[in-house]
Specification:
This protein has 4 helices and 2 strands. It has 97 residues and is of the alpha+beta class. It has a two-stranded antiparallel ribbon. Strand 1 and strand 2 form a beta hairpin.
Length: 97
């Protein structure tokens, strides 16, 4: 006789904790993208903190490519480009001769 167990495997997918970082990443992954103002409203961060997050965490630490678009008379929109890793070493190579 075989019995089945309803126990959750230790390898089961864990629920993502709702953090400000996860919230901003979801905004940046959407087709609409996000403006700095939208990120500030959603997180309570200062604008310079939102820009630093996009540059340092999303671009450098997570290695995701960020696309920036600015229509005339509108705010700049940032989004993560799916399937394209960020280019690494561009700044370091710039200063070398």
């Amino acid at each position: 006789m075989t019995t089945t167990s309803n126990k959750t495997s230790s390898r089961a997918k864990k629920a993502v904790t709702p953090t400000k970082q996860n919230q901003v990443l979801a905004m940046l992954r959407s087709k609409r993208g996000a403006t700095i103002a939208a990120i500030v409203d959603a997180t309570g961060w200062q604008p310079h903190t939102a820009r630093a997050f996009i540059s340092a965490v999303v671009g450098k630490r997570l290695g995701l490519q960020i696309e920036s678009e600015k229509a005339p008379g509108k705010e700049r929109i940032y989004r993560i480009v799916a399937g394209k890793p960020a280019r690494r070493g561009v700044r370091a190579a710039k200063g070398k001769k």
